[in-house]
Specification:
This protein has 374 residues and is α/β, with parallel strands linked by helices. The chain has 18 helices and 8 strands. The longest helix is centred in the N-terminal third of the chain and has 18 residues, at 114-131. The structure holds hypoxanthine and zinc ion.
Length: 374
């Protein structure tokens, strides 16, 4: 088990969280508060009963409960409260930059205005930025079980908010929800349209449950064409999850060559049975293959932990050591869109923290990976 000192070390690592769904941060306590405020009946008697219901056998099982939970969100203030609570957790876990997905269609399809959603989320983010050392950006995600046409309609709703990039910080689009049977290519045109609208920091959930070929499709869609690129700095290509890419060695080689960032979510993978056991998690293979893996919480209220818990579950299983934790944090800071000076500062902090660690044993000499004692 990780010692308290090791957990504290991980918490102190400056980290960017690149993959978290704001609707997936709805804790049962807030669910009850909002249900009461909005006079909505929920089919549970207590917080404990809600938590006990969070047993999933696959992604779809989870999504059914997750969309039902999101139905509690009705007003701007609810979205504010949701995001404000997430930022409290993130800041306490040493997150210095959050790239947050939101699912507009989940709300606008129920008659909630896009404006109520984004104003609440962004107001909470600015308040958090003042309170904590944290920066943020939002990623407008399309529900891939819905049609391409519906995604185009949803994208049009974002348009009025794209001019004020400093305030709203909607920086890209994403693709989430039921993966198998809804391949990335179904949304190639709408993502191309988003790029035309200057939304360039896009990512696609791929190979969480779906086959490696979905990652190939996603790469084709996300790879910026030099001639089209508007921003001067080259942004990394981001694939959300990417677990099953490891089944295809040629794909792994191209992910490494292109420096593709994988936003890996260990507790999500466990809870949704993407892996049967944490010892079967692909993180070790990803790191050994030189891939730019990062650690993220995905839907922390549903999967039993925030970002630090996601590091700790891997450390506990000896899948990673503390030096790997520094590498994973470094990958996240490098991939984040925070300003240059801020990035350099956190990379320096990470270097200092890495230098403070005991050395790894020399290969072949035996001995345990370095641990910190409490
Ligand atoms: N996968 C796909 N869609 C999602 C997820 C996820 O893990 N979380 C929220 N929407
Ligand atoms: Zn996700």
């Amino acid at each position: 088990m990780a010692t308290q000192e090791e957990i504290d070390f991980i918490r102190r690592l400056p980290k960017a969280e690149l993959h978290v769904h704001i609707e997936g941060t709805l804790e049962p306590e807030l669910m009850f508060k909002l249900a009461e405020r909005n006079k909505i009946e929920i089919p549970y008697k207590s917080v404990e009963e809600v938590r006990a219901a969070y047993q999933f056998s696959n992604l779809q099982d989870f999504l059914d409960i997750y969309y039902a939970g999101a139905g509690i969100l009705q007003k701007e203030q609810g979205f504010y409260d949701l995001a404000a609570e997430y930022f409290e957790h993130a800041a306490a876990d040493g997150v210095v930059d959050s790239r947050i997905f939101f699912d507009p269609q989940t709300h606008t399809d129920r008659g909630i205005s896009y404006d109520a959603v984004i104003q609440g989320l962004v107001r909470a983010a600015h308040d958090a930025a003042e309170k904590f050392d944290i920066t943020f950006s939002y990623v407008h995600s399309f529900l891939r079980h819905l049609t391409e046409e519906a995604a185009f309609e949803s994208l049009a709703m974002a348009e009025p908010y794209l001019d004020d990039k400093d305030f709203y910080r909607i920086v890209g689009v994403g693709l989430d929800s039921s993966e198998v049977g809804n391949p990335p290519k179904k949304f190639a045109r709408v993502i191309a349209k988003a790029v035309e609208m200057d939304l360039e920091e896009n990512s696609i959930h791929a190979a969480e449950e779906g086959p490696p070929k979905y990652v190939r499709q996603a790469l084709k869609i996300l790879k910026p064409k030099k001639a089209d690129r508007k921003s001067k700095t080259l942004k990394p290509i981001i694939i959300d999850h990417g677990n099953r890419a490891m089944e295809d060695p040629a794909l792994v080689a191209s992910l490494r060559e292109d420096g593709v960032v994988l936003t890996v979510c260990p507790l999500s993978n466990l809870k949704l049975r993407v892996v049967t056991d944490i010892s079967k998690h692909p993180i070790r293979k990803m790191l050994d293959a030189g891939l730019k893996a990062t650690i993220n919480s995905d839907d922390p209220a549903y999967f039993g932990g925030y970002i630090v818990d996601n590091f700790v579950v891997l450390l506990d299983a000896d899948e990673i050591d503390l030096r790997d934790c520094v590498t994973l944090a470094r990958n996240s800071i490098e991939a984040s869109n925070m300003g240059h000076n801020r990035k350099m500062h956190y990379l320096d902090v990470l270097q200092e923290m890495e230098d403070s660690l005991p050395l790894r044993p020399v290969a072949g000499a035996g001995g345990q990976a370095p641990r910190l004692q409490s």
